[in-house]
Amino acid sequence: MESLPDAIVQYILSHLNNARDVALCNCVSKRWKESLPYLKSLYFPRNSFDGYTGSDSPDIVIWKMLSSITCLEELVVYSPFTSSGLASWLLLVHSSLKHLELRMDNITDYKACVDSPSKLDCVSAAKNLESLKLWGVLMANPPKWDVFKNLKSLEIVGARLEDSALSAALRACPKLTNLVLLGCEGVRSVSVELPYLEQCKLDFYGLGNCSLSLTCPKIELLEVQGCSWLRVRETTCLRKLLIANNSGRVYMVDFGKLSALESLSMRGVQWCWDAISKMLEWSSEVKHLYMKVEFTGDLESLLPFPEVDFVEFFNSHPKLQKFDIHGAMFAALCQKNSLKNVEQGFVIPCLEEVVVQVRSPLNAEQKMSTLESLLKYGKNLKTMVIRILQMKSNHSSSDDFFDEICRLRFMNRKIVRIE
Q1: Is the C or the N end of the chain the one with fewer CB within 10 Å?
Q2: Is 186 among the domain residues?
């Protein structure tokens, strides 16, 4: 390092971002210390001030480091801080700061949320942000944000939100292309209207009874967990869609034709059959279909799926390449009438990979017939994975069924695999 020109040393050290490493480098020599102004990114881990015995508070220490940097673009703070500390930092770096990530730690502190200015309100000073990520947020009241004209990515992880507060926050970010809300509770009804949004991941924690209305004509990827009612009308660009509800039920979906959809995943304990059948109808162009829904039925009644005609299903999804089928959907394809009227010349043209979960020996004959039919008509099938999970039965039918699956694997050992 001693033989390198100053510009090269500054370039190398400018790629440091951990605050402790930066502080240690400042102690090496005056030459290294003079590289501090050229830092582009600064990261304060959770334990940044463990064992710290200095007279200055952590807020002041961070302020002193930031005041030495001429053009900071990224600031990540996981260590504890106050709203006044945050306000003072952003006053220093707001003009150059593009990426901000904060561990707020106020999800249970209502007093900190209503204090003025709150930590959330202070964020408004960084007007040129391109990405903002917040951890552990209590958003009981609408944040006092001006419009972030350059903000493209907003991520909130682990939050307690009120509907009105979330709506106000989204209105302040009209240019978003990426929105992530993970582990968020308290939300009952969400309306998202973002004309440039391309990727959206929403994970609502709680009873699973939220409603979502999304108007985003450029949306390409959408993942939603915890909603019972979904309305997403403009979907001409949507390529990947995941809908899950691990706590509640999916009652209603309204998507329209999903002409660009390539990947669809439906998960949950219970979906109304109308919602399932509509999703299958709209996604006729899908290439990867993942289905793990255990029951259908309205309200409290848990019912098995009605019969799904094997031939009609695959004729309705001619581009299907990968099919992950679990739970009730596999049972529905295996009912007695599903394969009675296979038309001459029927093939499954594009199917290359099938993953099936089997948990019960009930209707073993029909299940074996369906597995054999996938092999017979899937002319381009390269892989079939059969996962046998928690098959509990004292009856000999379990052993017989397992023997049949093993026979199938032996006869098609280049394709079939048992896990």
Answers
A1: C
A2: no
Dist CA 107 CA 101 (whole Å): 16
If one counts the domains in the chain, the total is: 2
| Mean per-residue pLDDT over the chain, rounded | 90
Does residue 29 belong to any structural domain of this protein? yes
Q: What do you get for the CA distance between the two ends of the chain, in Å?
A: 54
The whole-angstrom separation of Cα 265 and Cα 240 is: 8
Question: Do 149 and 175 form a contact (C-beta atoms < 8 A)?
Answer: yes
**DSSP labels, 42-65:** EEE-TTTTTT---SS-HHHHHHHH
- Decide: pTM greater than 0.70: yes
> Which residue's entry shows tokens 């999970």?
389
**What separation in angstroms does the CA of 307 have from each of 190, 262, 281, 337?**
35, 25, 15, 8
Q: Is residue 202 assigned to a domain? A: no
Q: Domain for residue 97, yes or no? A: no
Q: Give the pLDDT score at 114.
A: 55
Structure tokens at 114: 């209503």
Q: What are phi and psi of 348, to 5 degrees?
A: -105, 100
Domain that holds residue 365: 304-418
Cα 177 to Cα 310: distance, rounded to the nearest angstrom: 39
- pLDDT given at position 300: 77
- Report yes or no: 223 and 205 within 8 Å, Cβ to Cβ: no
Please tell me the distance from the alpha carbon of residue 253 to that of residue 232, in angstroms, as a whole number. 8
Cβ proximity of 300 and 272 under 8 Å: no
Strand order in the sheet with 210-215: 189-193, 210-215, 227-232, 252-254
**Contact assessment for residue 201 and residue 219, using Cβ atoms and an 8 Å cutoff:** no
Q: What is residue 145's predicted lDDT score, i.e. its pLDDT? A: 95
Angle between helices 364-377 and 396-411 (to 10 degrees): 10
Check residue 117 and report its DSSP letter. Answer: S
pLDDT at residue 18, rounded to an integer = 85
Domain boundary among 30, 53, 85: 85
Contact 293, 329 (CB under 8 A): yes
pLDDT above 90 for 38: no
CB atoms inside a 10 Å sphere around CB 112: 17
Element holding 383 (H helix, E strand): strand 383-388
Tell whether the torsion through CA atoms of 303, 353, 406 and 333 is positive or negative.
Answer: positive
The Cα–Cα gap between 288 and 162 comes to 35
> H/E element holding 110?
helix 110-114
Q: Which residues, other chains included, contact 196 with Cβ-Cβ below 8 Å and sequence gap of 6+?
A: 174, 175, 176, 177, 218
